[in-house]
Design brief:
This protein is α/β, with parallel strands linked by helices and about 475 residues long. Helix content is about 40%, strand content about 15%. Strands 5, 6, 7, 10, 11 and 12 form a 6-stranded mixed β-sheet that branches. The protein has a 4-stranded antiparallel β-sheet with strand order 1-2-3-4, with no helix packed on it. A hairpin with a 2-residue loop joins strand 2 and strand 3. Helix 7 crosses helix 9, helix 9 packs across helix 15 and helix 13 crosses helix 17.
Length: about 475
């Protein structure tokens, strides 16, 4: 039988062993740890002469030198013979130990047990704060900045803890071997921090891996697991308003520039992508500015909160087909959205619920856009000013979204076009969460420009619905009678 030291161990028959002179009687084999039968102990030092000077596990018999000791340890369903660094299962047959091959899956089970123990240790609350340990791992350019939590993740600890509570079950339910380069298993907070940094900084996977001391593939996998968890757990942070919420929204919109019964502002932005132009299939992503992009359409409330979004369409589509493909458009056309009570204005004017947009959108009964053309009447000019000032909330929201979650601000290098819409959606969820939790970091961060598509020219749409034109004229007359002195 082959031994761990590449020797061959031949055991003589039991009758030869027991007829040797001065051979001690066999010992009774008990539970672990216990020496092997004495007949085997007696001859093993001779057969393992090459092991002289090596360290074996234990010496259980005075007949053996300490450097050549062996013992049996318990391993169900077999006994294990420990010889130096090796542990091989064996059976006791006919008064002698017979070495057998390793138990199938033994190493895998041991590795799983070790990883599980490490995860428990990582998840257990330590004596210090999580951020104290995590911040010490920061290297590279981040280490030269003030190691303040808010400066790294652009959100407060309160918001961070809430996000951790949302994704805890999903991230901890599936076991993983995600670890830093020093072998420490990533805790829940570690995973959320890495994902948030990836989304908020827009830095490459390699740079983030270097900054936090981990492999770039780990950064990618952790970020994607976080995105999947947020899709499931944060969905109620982006929803159409309830009736009481809508009344509050209408009131706030009217306070801005006097537009009554306004329910939202709609706008679109482009998420830039770097795609190989030699690939003919990528031409569909080329927009009117000759850039590769993906379109995001959003309906925004006065608090800059996203209430409805659609994304994933290529940049070659302008506002009209993107709008018409959205569920928001279909529900408004069917009358299942923006179907609240009308507002009675002076001179028996009735105004239904509506949203407002720029000149790139069609004029519809529930979507009002500015007057186009030159030499407009004063009332129409005044309406355009009020409409433009009110719909700025949509521009500010999209500009803040890109400024806060910079992964969608710059030009993404060959992104997965199937995953990118989900990343954009999660960034919108995180944007809303910061608003819902009244995150104070939003107020101290440098304010971004209200322009979210800096290199894109204004588009114009000539689609006009008669009912939309009538509603716009009603509001124009109404607002002209309320001009400030």
């Amino acid at each position: 039988i082959r031994s761990p030291t590449n020797l061959f161990l031949f055991l003589p028959p039991p009758f030869l062993l027991h007829n040797w002179p001065c051979m001690p009687p066999p010992a009774t084999l008990g539970r672990c740890p216990h020496p092997v039968p004495t007949d085997l102990l007696y001859i093993l030092p001779l057969l393992f002469a090459r092991l002289k000077g090596s360290s074996l596990r234990t010496c259980s018999s005075p007949s053996l030198p300490s450097s050549n000791s062996i013992s049996l340890v318990s391993f169900d369903p077999f006994w294990t013979l420990s010889v130096g660094f090796a542990e091989l299962p064996c059976r006791v047959l006919g008064g002698r130990a017979v070495i057998m091959g390793p138990v199938r899956g033994l190493k895998k089970r041991k590795r799983a047990e070790k990883n599980a123990a490490a995860r428990v240790t990582a998840a257990a609350p330590g004596s210090g704060d999580w951020w104290d340990d995590f911040s010490r791992r920061i290297t590279g350019h981040l280490s030269k900045e003030p190691r303040k939590f808010e400066s790294i993740f652009k959100i407060s600890r309160k918001t961070f803890n809430y996000i951790c509570s949302l994704v805890r079950d999903d991230l901890m339910a599936r076991t993983s071997n995600f670890a830093f380069t020093d072998g420490k298993i990533l805790s829940l907070e570690d995973q959320v921090a890495i994902a948030l940094r990836r989304l908020s900084s827009g830095e490459s996977l390699l740079n983030i891996g270097v900054s936090f001391g981990m492999n770039h593939s780990t950064v990618s996998q952790v970020t994607w697991r976080f995105v999947e968890a947020m899709e499931e757990r944060g969905i109620y942070h982006l929803k159409w308003p309830t009736s009481p919420e809508m009344e509050d929204i209408k009131s706030k919109f009217e306070e801005i520039q006097g537009l009554p019964n306004c329910c939202g502002a709609i706008d679109t932005t482009h998420i830039m992508m770097c795609l190989p132009s030699v690939d003919a299939s990528n031409k569909v992503w080329v927009d009117y500015e000759k850039k590769h992009s993906m379109v995001l359409q959003a309906v925004v409330d006065p608090d800059l909160r996203f209430r409805d979004i659609i994304t994933g369409w290529p940049g070659s589509m302008n506002e009209v087909p993107v709008l018409q493909s959205s569920g928001f458009f279909k529900m408004c056309e069917k009358g299942t959205r923006l179907n609240g009570e009308k507002v009675e204005l002076p001179e028996k004017l009735e105004v239904r619920e509506y949203v407002i947009g720029d000149s790139g959108f069609p004029l519809l009964p529930w979507l009002l856009t500015p007057y186009q053309g030159k030499d407009l009447a004063d009332a129409k000019i005044e309406f355009n000013k009020r409409l433009s000032a009110t719909r700025m909330v949509a521009q500010r929201a999209l500009a803040r979204l890109k400024g806060m979650w910079k992964i969608i601000q710059g030009e993404m290098w060959r992104p997965d076009k199937h995953r990118l819409p989900r990343i954009i959606y999660v960034c919108c969820l995180l944007h809303n969460i910061a608003i819902d939790l009244e995150d104070e970091v939003r107020d101290v961060m440098p304010s971004s420009s209200d322009e979210h598509d800096t290199s894109y020219k204004q588009q114009f749409c000539d689609i006009t619905d008669d009912n939309g034109s009538i509603l716009r004229d009603k509001l124009s007359r109404y607002l002209s009678g309320r001009l400030p002195p």
